[in-house]
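Internal tracking record. Fields below are filled automatically when a chain is submitted to the structure queue. Please do not edit lines marked as system-generated. If the sequence contains nonstandard residues, flag them in the REMARKS field before resubmitting.
Queue: standard
Priority: normal
Entity type: single polypeptide chain
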Amino acid sequence: MRTFDLAPLYRATVGFDGLADLIDRVLASDPGNTNYPPYNIEKTGELSWRISIAVAGFSADDLAVEVRENALVVTARKSEDESERRFLHRGIATRAFERRFHLADHVRVTGASHADGMLHIDLVKEVPEALKPRRIEIVRQAPQDANLVEAKAIN
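SYSTEM-GENERATED OUTPUT FOLLOWS
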């Protein structure tokens, strides 16, 4: 249950809608639903990351990775018909899931791989040239001859 009212934040700020929406989304998420499947987020470089999700029991065909509106969405649906299989103990969860990760501006997915029960998704932040800081060259003007100015003033 959410106990914070973000209405004052919306009324008192301009241009921070994304931050307020992010806070609202985090506070509104169901805490019981956030632990499956387990995942890691690893920083692999100054502007690159890797998300590793434990997807034991799922094949690459059972998984889907999509980017929608600055959100990375990973879904899994088990396609195998298991009605014929009889388990004495079932400890590997293969239930369907959807996991969302909110992406910052200019972060894009560069690839995904599936190996050894892990789904690895590589991300990189590519800042456009227009948004990168740039140095402006200062042009020096040639100093005017002080004697020339005085001579004009006398004549």
